Every structure is written in structure tokens, then in C-alpha cells.
């Protein structure tokens, strides 16, 4: 009954390995979680309860940490307890709807 | 000839107005810039030179600041001088390509 | 034997209450944790294992969520498994040391 | 008459050089700016007008970009137009004051 959206980005530091393969592996972990998710050029967004979202992010960080001595993580959380799930798509639809109506532009 | 991708999110604080309308207005500013951009549930991504990207973000912040006494901004920049543009889509395609080949999964 | 430093910032949204009191309450939670910590103008830094650090941050978010319908969190993690603790102060000392030697300045 | 506090962190990627020296050099640039600033284990905080703060951050990024093919930057801005300067220290003092009074703790 809770709803949190997390945007996170993981950067391995000091690794000689290809970053791209490691990033793809973490995206695979996210998709296998079954939680709503979306990966864009800068962050992966994932929606769920705090504990289930954090478990997925920790699994991704642990995967990175196997290949790199140091891992940097950036996260932004939008936490709205009690709201029904599906916010990840509703937020974008709401902006698009306002823009299509022109209500967002003065004049 | 430079290429920077910025993910940014602007939050008005202490405003009585609808946040949704303000967010939509900043997305309109981003799209009118002509720079490659994409808005998801947590961030807006935009690609270009440092100065042109920062000018767009500043215009968005100024718009928010007209309606709220305080504005919080979170930004993540991926700066790769000398690389050709179009990275915003290439980064996502690269991950999808690796995942479709299964190269990202051990075994 | 692991060492993670987390910088986090929690913003309550849509709350009529004083943000300052809520922020102070979360700082109190952090200090009561016994983990090395430091609060500056923008973030609170805290050092420890992933699980103990995340438990503290979750307690802070839950406190904020009691007073605000929506809570925004920004986190940056510097994860270095296997390194001994005390990195939070060592990182700053290292920069100051380099600056005092002038080794950081060309010429 | 405006007041913005920026917390920023710059990470060089794909560089063989010591990250520590590069970090120290950017801290030197920040201190030479004359703007109020503070460097902790995770971020450097700097206070001023949007344009002057962004000029300092850009100079730091350009310095990093001379030594690394790719530079990642994370920024959080607290923008409060019209407020008098000195917020960076006032924000921390305010939290400490509340904690010392015990007003932040229920019971």
C-alpha cells in the first residue's frame, strides 16, 4: 500500500573491466525483480516498497563491487506512503496531459 | 563537438501552487530549447554543450522561482568532451543490445 | 570490515510544519545511532556497513513521513568493501594535506 | 541579493592519474574563488549567485576533464532568491540550536 519510486545510478571506480557489461548486468537484476522499472540514459527508475526497492539496489551494488574496488551510487527517492502503485507511469502521463492541453503555458 | 548529458529535477518548496503545472511548464521550456531531451518519472535528461544545457536549466529554475520562495535542484552530469552528440540514445541502445545478446548474464 | 559513506538529504513536501524542527529530529536520530556522522548545510554524512547505514536513513525518512504526505530523499554513497572504517575523516585530511603541501597546484 | 548554496561532487572516470590530486586541485579552485565554501567527505558546498557558483563549478569540471576522458558531476542546489548571504553557516547553526534546546525531540 506504500509507493516509492527510486532513481539510481551506480558507477564502478578503479575497474579495468568494461563498465557497459556491468551496467547491463545490473539492469538485468532490476528487470528480474518483477518491480516496475525503466532505464534511461542517466538513471534506472524502480517502484515498490522501501525494503524491496533497497534489496534490488543492494544486489546491483554487490554485483558491481565484485568487479570494482570502489562503487559510487547516486539515488533520488520519491516516497509517498499510502499511495497506490503505478505512480511511475502516472507521473509522466500527468505532465504530458498538461502539455497537450496547453495548460502549462501562459498565453 | 562536446557532449554532455544532464539529468535534472527541480522541486519548488513552500509554494501553495500546484507543483504539476510548474513541472509541466519547465518541461515545455526544455522541449522548446531544441536540444535532445527526455522526461521520465524522476528526472529530465537533456544533451548539449555545458553552456547551452545550463542556460536551459537556469531558465527552468527561474520559472519555478517565480512561484515558490525556495527551489531545490538535483543534477547529475555525464560530461564527455570531444564525443559526438547523440549519446543519450546510444547509451540506452548499448545496454539493450547487451541484454538482448545475453552477454550481460553470467551463464 | 566494510566501509560505506553515505551523504543524504531528506526534504518533506506538502507539509505545513516547520521543516527545521523535522530536520533537527532526523539529525538527532543520526547522532543517536553511534555511527560516525557529520551534518553540513546540504547533507548529513554517515559511515558504516550498508545495512546499518540504511536502517538509520530509513528511520529518518519514516520520521519525516509522519509529518509530511510526501518525502524526497537524495543520497550519494561511496562504497569501498574491505576498507577499514574512519574514511570520512581520512578523505578530508587527505585533501587538506595535499593542499597544504601545494602538491595540488601546478607551479 | 540572491543566495544559492550548491553542493557538488566531481568524479573523473577512466583516468590513470591519482584522483586525490585532481580533487585537491578543484578544492584549490573553489577556495581561490573567494566565495564561502566548505569541503567535507562527500561534497564541496559553495554559496553565491547562480552565475558565479556555476562558473566555479565549470572551472573545476574543466580541470578534471584535462586529466580524464569522462567526468561525472553530482550537484544539489538550494536556491532562495532574495535572501541575504551567509545561509551556509546559518543552516547548520539553526539545527544545532534546535538540538541543544532539545526542541527537536519529542519528550
Overall tally of structural domains of chain A? 1
Category from helices, strands and their pairing of chain A: alpha+beta
CATH architecture label name of chain A: 2-Layer Sandwich
Mean pLDDT of chain A: 88
**Separation, N- and C-terminal Cα atoms of chain A:** 40 Å
Radius of gyration of chain A: 16 Å
Element string of chain A (H = helix, E = strand): EHEEHEH
Structure keywords:
homotetramer, 107 residues, alpha+beta, Alpha-Beta Plaits, four-stranded antiparallel sheet, 3 helices, 44% helix, 26% strand, elongated
Can you characterise this structure?
The structure is a homotetramer of 107-residue chains. With 107 residues, chain A is of the alpha+beta class. The first copy, chain A, has a single domain (4-101), classed as Alpha-Beta Plaits (2-Layer Sandwich), CATH 3.30.70. In chain A, 44% of the residues lie in helices and 26% in strands. The first copy, chain A, has helices at 19-32, 50-67, 87-101, and strands at 4-13, 37-39, 44-48, 70-79. Chain A has a 4-stranded antiparallel beta sheet with strand order 2-3-1-4. At the B-C interface, loops of B face loops of C. Strand 4 (70-79) of chain A pairs antiparallel with strand 4 (70-79) of chain C.
Amino acid at each position: 500500500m506504500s509507493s516509492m519510486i527510486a532513481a539510481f545510478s551506480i558507477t564502478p571506480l578503479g575497474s579495468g573491466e568494461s563498465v557497459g557489461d556491468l551496467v547491463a548486468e545490473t539492469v538485468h537484476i532490476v528487470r528480474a525483480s518483477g518491480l516496475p522499472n525503466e532505464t534511461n540514459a542517466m538513471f534506472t527508475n524502480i517502484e515498490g516498497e522501501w525494503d524491496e526497492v533497497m534489496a534490488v539496489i543492494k544486489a546491483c551494488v554487490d554485483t558491481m563491487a565484485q568487479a570494482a574496488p570502489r562503487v559510487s551510487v547516486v539515488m533520488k527517492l520519491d516516497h509517498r506512503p499510502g499511495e497506490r502503485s503505478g505512480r511511475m507511469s502516472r507521473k509522466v502521463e500527468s505532465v504530458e496531459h498538461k502539455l497537450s492541453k496547453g495548460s502549462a503555458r501562459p498565453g
